[in-house]
Amino acid sequence: MENRSKCKDVSYKWIEWKVKSILEEDRSYAVGRDSTHLCTSCKKIRDDMGNWNHIEAYSREHPHAELTHGTCPECAKKFIWNNFNK
Known about the structure:
Layout: E1 2-6, E2 12-22, E3 27-34, E4 36-39, E5 44-46, E6 52-54, H1 55-61, E7 67-70, H2 73-84
Parallel strand pairs: 4-7
Antiparallel strand pairs: 1-2, 2-3, 5-6
């Protein structure tokens, strides 16, 4: 599961959650982490507002960001279209 959360400094971060339910204990445990996404195709990064930006500009503004891989909507459309027409 993933959601966008507002930080104390008024910025936003995408948080990825991993949840484990223990039925015998009637409990759930969750761990959240910053999940800034990097498109594996065009190397754009999703920012706090959900927009996709070039990696060079983003890394100058966020030098300590941890990145995970994914695919931006524009590249996903290209990939699906190209594979559909084969």
